[in-house]
Design brief:
Layout lengths: L5 H12 L5 E4 L2 H6 L7 E4 L5 H8 L4 E4 L8 H22 L3 E5 L15 H18 L7 E7 L2 E2 L6 H10 L3 E3 L5 E2 L2 E2 H13 L11 E5 L5 E2 H11 L10 E3 L2 H13 L8 H6 L23 H9 L3
Parallel strand pairs: 1-2, 3-4, 4-5, 5-10, 6-9, 7-12
Antiparallel strand pairs: 8-11
This protein binds NADP nicotinamide-adenine-dinucleotide phosphate.
Amino acid sequence: MGGTGFVGASVCAQLFGQGWQVTVPTRSCAKAGTAAPVAGMTLLELDVHDETALRQALVGQDAVVNLVAILHGTQDQFAHVHVSLVEKLARAVVVAGVKQLVHVSAIGANAQQPLSAPSMYLRSKGQGEAVLLRAASVSEPPAFELTILRPSVIFGAQDKFLNVFANLQKTLPFMPLAGADARFQPVWVEDVASAVLRSLMRSESATVARAPLILEACGPEVFTLRELVQLAARLSDVRSGRGRPVIALPNWLARVQATLMELAPGEPVMSHDNLDSMQCDNVASGALSGLDYLGIKAAALAPIAAAYLGAK
Ligand SMILES: NC(=O)c1ccc[n+]([C@@H]2O[C@H](COP(=O)([O-])OP(=O)(O)OC[C@H]3O[C@@H](n4cnc5c(N)ncnc54)[C@H](OP(=O)(O)O)[C@@H]3O)[C@@H](O)[C@H]2O)c1
């Protein structure tokens, strides 16, 4: 689910490459067609919020990967996509007899105390995790094997993160930046996809589902947002790599900027809720295992980002 998106394209390609038969539900085959992840996979037009249709689609599947999420919206929209849909998914997985579920959440989500997170996005992500952990724990052994991955910000050729910073600096004379000192631990999209794949393989030798596992999916380096903006400029050679002057916005001005961006058509580059998310660091807590648990050595950012930012 959510396989037509940025992370989904890599997940589908890796799964397909390893011989999995992959079915990707989408709200619109017509729109997803252009982003068709891998030739030979099945796109299925489906309203995943329709629990009966979802359950029917899951019958006969070995595993489900849930990548459906929104980054912007109202409280009700976040609850609809990150909580209600996950409740339906949890029930459908059990009734359809699906044995494995990999759920991609986000760093900063807190399944134990979801409401302690600073933003609607993170609170709803934590609530969704809590739903799944409860569903996976009602029987012993669990009805399905649950892996939750919590990535920090994800980079890759199609990201809407470094690419946006690079493109903005190609046009703006300076970079007015909210949350300049917020810290991130960017992770490569292919490492997240590998983590999904390896999560699905972790019980290959087991006869019963293992206990739920939550992993923090982060890269090897921590950057402030300001450093990431400057790195995007350097790697895409804006002003011979010097980039634009970064003007760190105080909180009140960042909120004015977010208001204006939310009023403009299209997805805002930075919403009020994104600002709220940055009140906590977007880095591994260290309290949970990371990608190395799955045998993945997370890639450093610059060599990979240089290849796609420099090519544009
Ligand atoms: N990208 C990042 O930096 C980042 C960082 C941390 C965590 N994550 C998490 O990683 C996962 C994948 O993220 P992504 O960047 O790949 O997201 P994405 O590109 O926005 O893709 C999300 C997919 O979800 C589906 N979707 C969106 N809204 C929906 C709705 N209302 N109802 C049903 N389906 C809907 C869409 O599929 P259709 O349009 O085909 O239906 C879309 O392809 C998400 O859980 C996200 O929170 C991402």
